[in-house]
Amino acid sequence: MMCNTSSIIKFLDQELNATQQNEFIRHLEGCPSCQTEVAKAREITDGLKNEYDINTSSFKAVMERIDTERYKKYPLKNRIKARNFARACSRMAIPALSFLLICILLLTPVTRNFIGMTLMTILDKENRFNQGIDIASFEVLSFTGAFEQTSGIELVTELNAKGMGVSHWEVLFASEERILLRNYASLLVYSNGAIKKTAELDTLGLDHIQGSIYTVLHPSPDGRFILAGNQIPSNEETSGPSAVYLIDADTGRYSKLYEGGINDLASAWSFNGQWLAFAPKNSAEKIDIINLSTLKEAQLPIPESEVNSLFISDSGKPAFYTGAQVALPTVSNLTRFGFQEQTEQPFFIDVDKETIWFIEEGRIRSQQFGSDKVNTHVISDLQKTTGTFLIKDWKLQGKHLISLMQGGRIHVFDLVDYSDKLFLNFNLTKSGYLHWCIVSPNGSYILWEKEPGNIEFMHGNKSYTLRLFNQPATNLRWNRERTLVYVEFLNSSNPKAGEFAIKQIGVNSMISWLYRTVPESRE
Amino acid sequence: MDSDKQIIEKVITGEGALFEELVKKYMPKLLGFFYKMGLTLHDAEDLAQDTLVKIYENLYRYDEGWEFSTWLYKIASNTYKDFIKKRRCTIELDENLPVGFEEDNQLERMILHQDLKMLLQALKTDVRAMLLLHYYSGLSLDEIGKLYRLSTSAVKMKLFRAREKLIKLNSHKEAAFQ
């Protein structure tokens, strides 16, 4: 395997180790084609280094154009003073202007829209949704509304005929407006008291999606759209055609965004659900941005780099991490990026505030882009008590960072309006169990499973037990600040019969139902 | 002989004529850099002159934390970018062989210049500049990293890939002629 360009370059640069170098020389003796290649490669490198002789008149031309008395006329002292003053001014001016600009962007919705619009107008390319996503032309989308006409029993029969037991249903997303249920093959949406099947996931043209555990669905923060694709296992060499789709949960319309597995794609929703950004993780040359209210798409060219993780602000500005550097759009030009070295993987980049958040040595840290200063986030209450706040475990859920601190405290940190006073400080049990937990939409409740079947939640500084039996905690999703939803199978002796209800439980443990496939009397 | 920094010190304290030493030292390097970047010899000469005039006028701003050559090539790269922006056209190869090279009249070597120049056009502007800054202008990987805000390893990788591309293109080109 020596007849390749990269070995030749390494050989010429003497970057092979002694054994490899000797091996290559031996190989070279018997390989005429490599001999030619080495000669040519050397020729190119030499060609790059070649210098030129030059006509001396050019020196004179330069000397004629400059005023050699320039530095005599104006004493250096004044110049240095002026230079230092200018440097000081520019040091002050850039942060001040950035701050002012960011304030303007944040405060005035008109400006914010304007920036979004300009971005779109400049870069908008032919809009795929208007072109190709006409419901009538896509048979798979004609499921829309089918549920409204069939009874629950027929629905179940239909599912059973396909061999999809309802026991697989799980709550994918819940909010006041809509609840999304999924199994491997289908996606259901419940809203305004009705339930309908929005998409047949197994007919989207993804080879592995049919009944596959590899199908991944990422709902937007408002549950209106879903990013769907296959998690292609890395050990599988040929995984067949696969693609990532954007599905409109309300109408079932979809659009193909990317050819390949969803794990090869970096993607991000903005917290307000208004924007989606995505880019291939390996050697991306652009970032795609979709404005989800207009369904227009923009492409921002970037210097070719890896996109390890991606973030997008509520005003549609993206940022990404290459694995070694953080890239943020420059203030003056949204289509150009500035880069900064960053060793630790950021868990969040606040693009509007230009702040990078990461965990290092067990502490939450933030750093302003363009500044060397790293702030360690001090939680005032904790400092008073223990003085240490090493993070034992942490996770991101929606717009919240949940971290479990040493000493058994859970902190919920709101990444939209972060500030010290918004830290909610819970005194958790000393066991410090944080294998699974979810935060309510506004962050005032946090729910976790202490041990299987024992679900607790925290509010203020007190913990409470949620009286819900025979239900796995992982099936629960907050839909409002004080209620959670889950799916319950009604005919437990025959789960294949597919009778289920969407139920709601309040923090006071009051249970009610939102939807049932069969009338209550038949339960 | 004085170092670059000593010369600069003297120039900004009033000995303006000494700047010629820097001009003599860097003019050929700049000319070669611009020429290899794809400009005609005429444009390359203009740009090299412009760069040196800019350097002189801003000499008092020179930050000693930087190598002088790094600073010089930073200004040269910016001058090149401005020039390309203004022209808004692709760079043509010389119709005639450069007039400034009569002394070096070995036809083969000139053909190599032209061929290499053509090959270099296949690279992105920044990568082409990095390649020339390292191999032609002798800037270290660290210095290039500083100029382009990249890590040393990233620069190294880019240069490696660029050379790989050049060598491959060269082989394809020759195969096409045979």
Structural account:
The complex is a heterodimer of chains A (523) and B (178). With 523 residues, chain A is α+β, with helices and mostly antiparallel strands. Residues 111-154, 205-211 and 382-387 of chain A have low confidence and may be disordered. Chain A starts with a helix and ends in a 7-residue tail after the last strand. Chain A is built from 11 helices and 32 strands. Chain B is mostly helical. In chain B, helix 3 crosses helix 4 (68-87) and helix 6 (125-135) crosses helix 8 (152-177). The radius of gyration of chain B is 17 Å and the shape is globular. Residues 88-111 of chain B have low confidence and may be disordered. Chains A and B meet through helix 1, helix 3, helix 4, helix 5 and helix 6 of A and helix 2, helix 3, helix 5, helix 6 and helix 8 of B.
Q: How would you spell out the order of helices and strands of chain B?
A: HHHHHHHH
Question: Helix fraction of chain B?
Answer: 55-70%
C-alpha Rg of chain A (nearest Å)? 30 Å
Q: Whole-number average pLDDT of chain A?
A: 73
Assembly classification: heterodimer
The biggest beta sheet of chain B reads:
none
Strand neighbour order, sheet with most strands of chain A: 1-2-3-4
Radius of gyration of chain B: 17 Å
Biggest interface: A-B, 43 and 54 residues
Distance between the termini of chain A: 69 Å
Structural class of chain A: alpha+beta
> Overall 3D geometry of chain A?
extended
Largest sheet of chain A: 4 strands, antiparallel
Low-pLDDT stretches of chain A:
111-154, 205-211, 382-387
